[in-house]
Amino acid sequence: MSGFLFRQVVFGPVRSRRFGVSLGINLLPIGYKLCSYNCIYCECGITQCAQPQDPLDFIPAKSIAEIMHSRFAEILATGPMPDNLTFAGNGEPTMHPEFPAIMEATIRLRNTFFPGTKITVLSNATRAGDPAILNALLKADNNVLKLDVGTPELLASINRPLVKISLPQLVGNLKNFDGKLSVQSLFLKGVINGRQVNNSKGEQFEQWLKHLEDIHPALVMVYSIDRATPVDGLERLSHAELREISERIKSLGLKAEIF
Prior knowledge:
single chain, 259 residues, alpha/beta, ten-stranded mixed β-sheet, 22% strand
């Protein structure tokens, strides 16, 4: 078992394998993970709930903007300048009830302190069917949205949604971005509930490729496990296996990178 939580609203900067110098923004409760997924590989650990334990656990948008203002001013004075302001943290960032207002505040503060910095959102896209959330996400420079699987069965065993959402709904949410997104896909193998699982092989993988063709993202980020996982029995894929996946994606006329 493993997992760690972020204890600040603004954390870092950290050097990211995908986003360069990244200044993280955590919109979720400080004391626990809150997510609409319960992925078996999540670095934050097991999801205990898909609803806030107390609505007051959310830091108000106004307070988050004040925290960002203070921290951005410090970084402007001391460096290093961030390449990305990255919405990440203790689960799914769009679950904050004031997410659209926070996006507006982030854009305003970015323009003031770091005009050359991009705003990136890491999301599982479960809430991107909500027009207000979609509109807010489309204001980000980089939407990095999850799609790990090609079939409902693997969605249930790998991502384990805690909200009512189907794979066709997820694909539809991703299609709403009209290609202005990156799809991030984590590949793993191992034993889940006594069954061998490998989401890089077989019919489910071919279905995943078909979903990519429908979504037509600007980039597919291919990666595997990089840290300890909350569920035992999982293995990372080799670089050669990830390269094979990347080549299949490129054969569709899509851009792919291995991280």
